Amino acid sequence: MARFTLPRDLYFGKGAIENLKSFKGKKAMIVVGGGSMKRFGFLQKAEDCLKEAGMEVALFEGVEPDPSVETVMKGAQAMLDFGPDWIVAIGGGSPIDAAKAMWIKYEYPDCTFEDMCKVFGIPELRKKAKFCAISSTSGTATEVTAFSIITDYSKGIKYPIADFEITPDVAIVDPDLAETMPQKLVAHTGMDAITHAVEAYVSTANSNYSDPLAIHAIEMIQADLVDSYNGDMAARDRMHDAQCLAGMAFSNALLGIVHSMAHKTGAAFADYGAHIIHGAANAMYLPKVIAFNAKDPTAKKRYGVIADYMNLGGANDDEKVDLLIKFLRKMNDDLKIPHCIKNYGADSYPVEQGFVPEEVFLERLPEIAKNAIGDACTGSNPRQPSQEEMEKLLKCCYYDTEVDF
Ligand SMILES: NC(=O)c1ccc[n+]([C@@H]2O[C@H](COP(=O)([O-])OP(=O)(O)OC[C@H]3O[C@@H](n4cnc5c(N)ncnc54)[C@H](O)[C@@H]3O)[C@@H](O)[C@H]2O)c1
Ligand SMILES: [Zn+2]
Prior knowledge:
By secondary structure, this protein is an alpha/beta fold. It is built from 15 helices and eight strands.
């Protein structure tokens, strides 16, 4: 028995944000990030539409990229003070994810961050408020997913909160918001999206419901990501839909160890100035994990199917897996993303010697590997890595060496 859950309503296409005007409620709290939504006028637009719907509106501004537990607690307090019956989160994955966690704490003030992290253990929400997410990046698809990623900076670890309770009630996928993304953000979020689709397709929780979404997303991203990066706005608009389809797939089929590793390396070297951006981490690790997972016959076959849909050629599954890996590595080159942590430099550009010194990486490796194995995304990966295998895999991701185990 399985479950497939999506938002009740999804508004898409240019100008979709205007649908806020039809919302019914008394008080809306808008949760937003550091300034891009304000700068480009989308915050004002959302506020105006909600006011036109007859609602009193309050703002919670300034959610940082990779939001912290502290921000979640502050936002929840603001909600408790204001008492909204709608929470409207607008921006990238960070403000939307933060708002989801604030929502839990708003509905259940006694719930601790630790309680929230119990996978599929969130109590029933919507007693106080409904939730609408309006995404401005084309990657996380958090507007349709059952996930929220919050960082505990005291531990240097990202924790996924996972429960269908936090799947938004309404998703607004308006490509106008994605058009203002700078090039780097397009690259990172786009590689995040293709990783979602590939991991969902080979996940042990894949299904007839998630497969078509994942495959179609992969085909669209193959067609449009690099053009979107190079400034083609029609491709940018299509990418906004593609990433959302990938999100619908992975929210239900779950992910795999690319994400486990990204979650556990993302903030692990922050003290060296290396915040490994989520999408860049995925882009570096995905080809390595494909090589590792392809030792599992079912996964290998499924990667072969992906390669077929992408028209990559190959006479057998081994060749198809190789071609898929080559294709993804070429995508990294086109998007100027490094292939490994060793070469991960400022703004994620490839450099000769990146932020993370070799000895620091090696010293922290056992702990990171242990944490990655324990990540919520590991359970649905087609191959369960041992501690030794995870350490070897992470080393391949550091040095860009071949995965032959
Ligand atoms: N909930 C999920 O299912 C899920 C899935 C994958 C990743 N994540 C998490 O989401 C976070 C990353 O989110 P993200 O990649 O969307 O980036 P983000 O929300 O962290 O935003 C990154 C930067 O881009 C700016 N920005 C956002 N939209 C813009 C636009 N349209 N124009 C100009 N600037 C814009 C922001 O102001 C910010 O400075 C990470 O914490 C990651 O772990 C969540
Ligand atoms: Zn992701």
